[in-house]
Amino acid sequence: MSLDGAPTPPGGAQSVHANGHINGGGQQNGVVAAPPPHVTHRLRLNPSSDHKPDNYEDLELDFSPLVFSSLERYLPPNLLLQTREMKVKYMREILLRYYPESERVRAHTIHCNREFTNTVYKQLQKHREYRQKIISNYQRLHRELYTMHAANFFLPSFLKAINENTEQGFKNIMSEPCPGVFTFEMLQPRFCEMLLAEVENFEKWVHETKFRIMRPNTMNKYGAVLDDFGMETMLDKLMEDFIRPMSKVFFAEVGGSTLDAHHGFVLEYGMDRDVDLGFHVDDSEVTLNVCLGKQFSGGELFFRGVRCEKHVNTETQSEEIFDYSHVPGHAVLHRGRHRHGARATTSGNRINLLLWCRSSVFRELRKYQKDFSSWCTECQREKRERQRQSVAATKLELLRREGQTAT
Ligand SMILES: O=C(O)CCC(=O)C(=O)O
Ligand SMILES: [Fe+2]
Asked: pTM higher than 0.95, yes or no?
């Protein structure tokens, strides 16, 4: 059997050369670009905290109703008085800009809002058809993987922390070997085995049918997008009920509490697969990276400090250098903007589960931020430097004035 495959490949990571430069001008791979100048849709920088948002649960929408309720508080005051339909229309146009599959289109074509929306719709439609084709033809091996069964998937220690849902509860199971990089034991060995077998089964089907699949991003030749073969709902649950509570505590300043979209995939490394992964930042606010196995050597993750778009290529400070060795079943949680890469897997096969979690609210608000990012180390260094210079200038001025009074 031969099936027709992939539409335009999805977005991905933004690669950064180890010595600092972004590959290919930095606009490729689904990295968020500035909106076209004519786009007039605006949000407030601070939410209207006393405004009670509408409920959107009963509408058929392409984003979660909760996203609309959260975003509503950021609407310009005059819009808050409009009908629910008007608000939905306004917010949808903003949100559509953040649908990952739209990024490529946006970079090349868009000249007016309507045209943009139509092009995105076509892309979405194509992508839905692509997924549908896979889902209706691929025979699942372990059906129990496709719905969330927390007790079968996760270790009791992890479940206990999630149920407690307190900062201390999370800290009890986590290590933070480098600021902003959290590691913890997460998956049951049986779950890892089943997911590995499912991925293998899917790859076998792809091979046999010659179905042209999209790889997780432009940096990988191997691996598979789990969302494309039926795991989207289960992974949404993973993000909402497990990753968002933790991110709310540890990554609030990068939208950790408003994560509302994900890209879920596995990567496969080995001498006969992808060997390593270059230095990059993820197209995510928060990334979950869990090793599924199997046996391997090498493949360490290397981290090199958190940077905003403007500072992505700046030098690494010695205290930012951190290398991590993967352990099957163990998870790493970090900001998408934490620069990192993976060293060569020198023997065996390493397969990792990745969940890039995004917040559309955070992405919209980031556009209005003029000054320094609280989470970018380089922004903070520049800010301190600017303050130091300003204090020095004031001191000098005071001394000069004192000198004048004395004479
Ligand atoms: O291979 C790894 O563990 C890193 C994967 C990664 O950074 C990514 O997919 O964004
Ligand atoms: Fe990454």
From this structure: no
